[in-house]
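Hi everyone,

Forwarding the result from last night's run.
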Amino acid sequence: MINKIKYRIIILLAMLSFTACQNDDMVSANVDAMVAEPGDLLNQAFPLNKVRVEGKGLMGLKRITLDNKIDISFNPNYNSDKAFIFTIPFDEKLGSRFGVQPITFITGNGSVTKNIEILQPVPTITKTIPAVATPGFPLEIGGTWFYNISSVTLGGKALNYTLKSSSSIIIGLPANAVSGSELVITTPGGTAKKTLEFATLILVSDFDGNGTRTSWNAYGDIDSFNANTTGGPTGNYATLTWSGSTANGYNGSSAGGGTNFLSATNKDAAKTFIDIDVSANVTGAQFAIQLNTIDGKDYGYNFKVTDVNWTTKTISLADFKDNYGFGTNTASTIDASKVNEIKVGIVQSDTPNPSVIKFDNIKIRYQ
């Protein structure tokens, strides 16, 4: 009996010794370094960088959590006891942010938490909408990494801007902006720069004595015309009233022809626009915008006012049609550099009686 007890004690001691040896072989998870690729950033990384984690006891990787809230996907095939690789994500919807933050790794040998610093990338400018800017008009800037913007400048002068998203901002271009000026967007990550080329902008008339056409007169079936009405969006404006007369069958106002507005190289109608501030006494009042006769055709563009408040109407020259706007042939193929007169009137056949149209700040631009 005593021999049996001794035998059992010996077996028990042997089992305890074996278990102790096994426990001595187990290694707790430990991270020595996190190295960003490409490059050799240590415990730092930019979004979308691959990060190589080095240490011990890393086999059996189960989970990676960034900033206590963002689960990071990984490929278990790139996991050994001494290393594994993952990619730094960046998703605003999940709460991604820049700066030092905890990152936790759960492996088959336990959990380990370290700090990693997510660096803000240098912003980039990839496009502008429209591609060619116009002084005095808003401009959308498309790009990347528009976070924590500290300033937006053009030619060294600060601009007002609205942040739409991390890839888009709207800037307000000053009316006196000079083509070739450098736009600079500054963030903690660095600066993005782009030289802006502006559209050719010709002021036809502002009815305050400025522009290439300053002496306006009216013709046809008008009741009254005043090219110096006070209280417009930027000063004086023009007012034309039609009260139902059809003696001539037409009406309008003009400051006459003269030198072509655009240079001989500005030929593309699709790149040519007419901007005009408009208002009226009643919705439905119908404007008639006409050009000088070009290549034997009378091009026009007609539109109805939908808001009696002042608004800026932008018209593409390519949208004009022959026969005073009632034809089937568009002006898309005309030579835009031949335009030297812009007339403004009322379409008598489909407009309230009386119709009083108001207009100001007529411009032609090429972009």
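The two ends are 108 Å apart (CA to CA).

Cheers,
N.
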